[in-house]
Design a protein that fits this description.
Order of helices and strands: EHEEHEHEEEHE
Number of domains: 1
Low-confidence stretches: none
Shape: globular
Mean pLDDT: 92
Radius of gyration: 16 Å
CATH superfamily: NAD(P)-binding Rossmann-like Domain
Largest sheet: 6 strands, parallel
CATH topology: Rossmann fold
Length: about 190
């Protein structure tokens, strides 16, 4: 997918992982420029990277929400902005094997939606719910998800990144408060018994 970011400033908050790294690279390839550390407040696009696999230690979800809210305030003052949360698909469908991880991700999803309500129409706030994604190794989700994925395979980094690009596309002006599940249909409940 190709979009034209025309030099938009991009920042990242949260944990590093192969999905957010690939998303940052794709946004740069589409005309964005990454701002680091102390310049994150200048971002036109903020990626909020949450843990994508159970068992990965994360920052406190309240701290991530606070950083995203601070960015939304600044973006509103400038007249526009985009915030995209990268979180586990488990945020939209709890997984019995991982109750705490399910709860933490669901709270982040709820926080994303409140930001969308509070800061629209100037700031569009959305989320990509990443299911089982492999890049040689499992980089997101849980292998148990694969037996309940209608497409019958793990996703790729490129498929997750395409959803990020959709939310960051300047031509996308009407989507906010949404989570796009890039999970091969896992949330649809295909044969779920866990």
């Amino acid at each position: 997918m190709e979009i034209d970011l025309a030099g938009a400033a991009i920042a990242r908050e949260g944990v590093g992982n192969p999905v957010v790294d690939a998303a940052l690279a794709a946004l740069q390839a589409n005309g964005g420029r990454v701002v680091e550390g102390g310049q994150a407040h200048l971002a036109d696009i903020l990626l909020v990277s949450c843990p994508l696999r159970p068992g990965v230690t994360a920052e406190d979800s309240r701290a991530l929400y606070a950083e995203a809210r601070k960015a939304a305030v600044t973006m509103t003052e400038r007249g526009q902005g985009r915030i995209v949360f990268l979180l586990s698909a488990i945020s939209g469908m709890p997984m019995r094997r991982h109750p705490r991880f399910s709860m933490e991700n669901a709270s982040i999803l709820a926080g994303m939606r409140t930001l969308a309500m509070e800061f629209g129409p100037k700031v569009l706030v959305n989320a990509v719910g990443v299911g089982a994604v492999q890049d040689g190794i499992m980089v997101a989700g849980d292998k148990a998800m694969l037996s309940h994925t209608p497409v019958g395979r793990a996703g790729t980094l490129e498929e997750a990144v395409a959803a990020v690009l959709f939310f960051c596309d300047p031509l996308n002006t009407y989507t906010t408060g949404q989570m796009l599940g890039v999970d091969g249909g896992w949330m649809a409940g295909y044969g779920r018994n866990f």
